[in-house]
TrEMBL record:
Protein name: Zinc-binding dehydrogenase
Recorded coiled-coil stretches: none
InterPro entries (UniProt xref): ADH-like_C, ADH-like_N, ADH_Zn_CS, ER, GroES-like_sf, NAD(P)-bd_dom_sf
Domain of life of the native organism: Bacteria
Keywords: Metal-binding, Oxidoreductase, Zinc
UniProt keyword Metal-binding present: yes
Domain Enoyl reductase (ER) stretches: 11-366
Matching Pfam families: ADH_N (PF08240), ADH_zinc_N (PF00107)
Organism in which the protein naturally occurs: Nocardia callitridis
Protein family according to the UniProt entry: Belongs to the zinc-containing alcohol dehydrogenase family.
Cofactor: Zn(2+)
Species lineage: Bacteria, Bacillati, Actinomycetota, Actinomycetes, Mycobacteriales
Length: 368
């Protein structure tokens, strides 16, 4: 049996090890990808730090792009050699949520993959030579090969670099879902993006593509704010130097913004986003919160100002991934501008250390 290298996480706050394990085989309705690129995301970091409940040992990586090298039984939606990107939510296509078109809420995905690190026959495709199972976080893309359900892979247009397209699977798809379904953003509206990391920068670009008239980026790091301005932010706010909610209101003539996106998942930044939202506007939670973290919202203010609070868990893969990929191919989204670097898989530990320390502007893509 042929082998591959994979980045294995033995437990919370443990060093990531590059191990040689058996190359997986796709089951019915699945495809095997030769991974070309995998984005390093904060949600992976939460698992690494033990802040996101997930079984160990495991292989992380949920922003995956690659080439199809093997088809499982019954797959007719793609072919060997196809350039594809995988969505971080891997819809089963059969549960009630998928049937309603809300496949970002796929029940099987959350029960089997996020709950147990398995695919839809309730087993993992990965194991150590000892036979010990390795849980799969989404497609487990921090490896040379990855098994993905066929409903979760989408053809990458020839105009796009395949490695860069990896970030569409989470960062960009998440931003699209937040803009379209969370905020129901309309041309001419005003927007604030609180925390402009990988997802936040995608939100800045998405707001521009949706025709927002004013896009205010809020963060603690000057390099991230500079990147946000290059990607379309009309204004930037350094939240270490000012009351950012008051500053956003001043920038909008006292009104606040029609849509405030919080892209970090922290109580304090969510409270800030809420307080910069205009009367009748919407505060959209996009960042993944940790455990039972809770924000404090003044109920009287919420009532009086009729602000909507919406949670957004990405776009709907089967309908939205093709749309987002076309947007990128047409130049409406600049994937390269979000990516701050490409690093070999052997640098995975350093990349996540830098991410934890807030030193990564944009997205780093790891190359097996």
């Amino acid at each position: 049996m042929s082998s591959m290298r994979a980045a294995v996480v033995a437990g919370p706050n443990r060093k990531i090890s590059i191990e040689t394990i058996a190359r997986p085989r796709p089951g019915r309705g699945e495809v095997l990808l030769k991974v070309e690129g995998c984005g390093a995301c904060h949600t992976d970091l939460h698992v690494l730090e033990g802040k996101y409940a997930f079984p160990y040992p495991c292989v992380l990586g949920h922003e995956v792009a690659g080439r199809v090298v093997e088809l499982g039984e019954g797959v007719e939606t793609t072919e060997v050699g196809a350039r594809v990107v995988a969505s971080f939510v891997m819809p089963c296509g059969r549960c009630d949520s998928c049937g309603r078109g809300e496949d970002n809420l796929c029940e099987k995905f959350f029960a089997m993959n996020r709950g147990r690190g398995h695919l839809y026959d309730d087993t993992s495709r990965l194991a150590r030579d000892s036979g010990q199972e390795l849980a799969m976080f989404s497609a487990a893309g921090l490896a040379e090969y990855s098994v993905v359900p066929c409903h979760a892979v989408f053809p990458v247009p020839d105009e796009l670099d395949l490695r860069a397209a990896s970030i569409v699977g989470c960062s960009v798809l998440t931003a699209y879902g937040a803009a379209r379904y969370g905020a129901r953003l309309l041309a001419g509206q005003t927007v604030a993006v609180v925390a402009v990391g990988g997802v936040g920068l995608s939100l800045v670009q998405m707001a521009r593509a949706f025709g927002a008239s004013q896009i205010i980026a809020v963060d603690v790091r000057a390099d991230k704010l500079d990147m946000a301005r290059r990607l379309g932010a009309t204004d930037t706010v350094d939240s270490t130097e000012t009351d950012c909610a008051a500053t956003v209101r001043r920038l909008t003539n006292g009104r606040g913004v029609d849509a405030a996106f919080e892209a970090l998942g922290q109580p304090r930044t969510f409270e800030q986003a809420f307080m910069m939202t205009a009367d009748g506007g919407v505060t959209v939670l996009v960042g993944v919160g940790i455990g039972d973290a809770a924000a404090s919202i003044p109920l009287g203010y919420l009532l009086r100002h009729q602000i909507k609070i919406v949670g957004s868990y990405g776009g709907r893969p089967r309908t939205d991934m093709p749309v987002v990929l076309r947007m990128a191919a047409r130049g409406q989204l600049d994937l390269d501008a979000i990516i701050s670097g490409y690093r070999p898989l052997t640098d995975v530990q350093t990349v996540y250390h830098r991410l934890a320390d807030g030193e990564v502007a944009g997205r780093v893509v790891l190359i097996p």
